[in-house]
Amino acid sequence: MTAPQGTILEVLYIEGDRYNHRKSNMYWVLLPPDEWGRRVTGWIGGDDVEHVQRVARASSAPLVNVAETPATDPRQGPSDATMSASVEEVAVARTFISDVVINFEFDKSALTEEARQKLASATVTTTTRPRGIAVALAGHADGIGRESYNDQLGSARAETVKRYLMETLGIPAESISVVSYGERSPVAPNKTRAGRAQNRRVEIKAGGS
After folding, report:
1. Phi, psi at residue 121, to the nearest 5°?
2. Which helix (H) or strand (E) holds 114?
3. Considering the entire predicted model, what is its pTM?
């Protein structure tokens, strides 16, 4: 991921000091749309940036200049992403997910259209700036099939939702936890078709500080 010098990037999330630029900070930034309308996100370290003189803008957010050095995530090791740009934290609306439960078709881990609509409805917009984002995903299956298989199916369903949150909302992977309960935590009887449909689910619980 590269950007020409002078490109303005949106800072979606800061890990570290949210009120002062520090070398120890990590910035989760959003690139402007490309020719296909896609917007790419990525980490960049505070030690790769320096403050530049503020220019007259409607926003009072600070600007920092990003040197041509690889953007890295200390938890994941070096990245091949390189940025040369100006980064700006802007007071814009951000999207997050609220607590919601979505359901799946029998023996499937793909999102249904109904599930996508439910996730879209659970997306909330806010201008607050939480210091941390945490999303917990719990995958479940109905009682049909082997317990070991249902454990894998519950995990696959949770991973599908995780990819959706990362790609659609830009939530960092390390901020999303995934667990599978398989068939062991039903919310309805597995003896009926309606009950089994309720048990094929992923529970999403979101938090922040």
Report:
1. -70, -25
2. helix 113-122
3. 0.56
